[in-house]
Amino acid sequence: MDSPTPPPPSDPFAAMDPEMAAHPQPLFKMLRESMPVIPVDTGGVALTRRVDVEEVFRHPEIFSSNADAVDLQNIRPLIPLQIDPPEHKKYRKLLDPIFAPREVAKLEEWLTESVNELIDHFVDQGEVDFSAEFSTLFPTRVFLGLLGLPVDELPHFLALKDGIIRPQVAVGSTYGSPESLAHQKQTAEAIYAYFDKVLDQREIERQDDLLSRFLDASVDDQELTREDILDICFLFLIAGLDTVTASLDCMFAYLAEHPDQRRLLVDDPALVPAAIEELLRWETPVMGVVRVAVQDTEIAGCPIHEGDMVMVMLSSVNTDEADLPDAEVVRFDRESNRHLAFGGGVHRCLGSHLARLELRVAMREWHRRIPEYAVAEGHTLAYTSGIRSIDHFPMTFPTS
Fold this sequence. Notes:
By secondary structure, the chain is of the alpha+beta class. The chain is 49% helix and 10% strand. The chain has a single domain (18-369, 378-394), classed as CATH 1.10.630.10. Strand 5 and strand 6 (222-223) form a beta hairpin. The chain is globular, with a radius of gyration of 21 Å.
């Protein structure tokens, strides 16, 4: 007798135990085979197959990324994430050149210095909490540097980021509870107030940073308003810090647990760019993104009503055998890798080129200086769900 199909969860991540969060691929394989379109209690569906997800990404006029899709207690829609076409295009026209590959490449020397400064602090100790001392600090330093903000503000920005993404941790409640929502709202107000004050300073004296560029930028001959810049900064803080940290956590955890794969990178650093793409595909740190239907429609024969949430399960899409026959094999020699770890369609991640460079530099320099490492004996890594980061990652390695 076949095993009964589990009941549809209200949140596809809610039922994940620590083992599932650490290794979600088998769960998503089961869902693709038995429940490719999952109804959720809150109204809407979760999608697990690439064919259905690509349909959503192709039609932003039906499946919107507006502020109804994700509420972070922001006052206005975040730019450009929560702005749909055609208005979305004018903001990408301004922002895309700033984060284009040619512009991002100019940062490589600075990123390399930053990575090595962090490694210098623990390379002779033979142990490190990878999360606390490296994966969290590196992208935050990059963010502060790009916006011309002092490094000693780092703890403050981490608190602001966590107050939006993980407010339940700060208040000891569940996500979405009145207590966590109140903390999230308070944090959002603090983010706007902080950047408003810094922009006042930049109005008086420009610097060589993104904030100054925003003040001098225009879209279709119209300057960005103060509100536009604040909405961009809010998104940059959330997206620029947490996702790169989570990616580093997932990638180095995989390599710590798969020494044969790690040695491939040590022996041939030229494999690093391809390894980054493959580990983004396999690990998919941002497990899902949300869209909201703005009209009645259907997906794979399943009715979707106006106002329904559509959760795109990127983790499942990236391991879909229907799209990639050997999807369950991690290969650093793939010639083509069409993963959707950075999303897809018009809202594909604005900072993907910067994130890739950060990841490449971190992986290259780390393995140049610390080629052998492992998770500390007796410790089991605990992953957060939704965005798969690791709060405590004790690592050991031999010293010279």
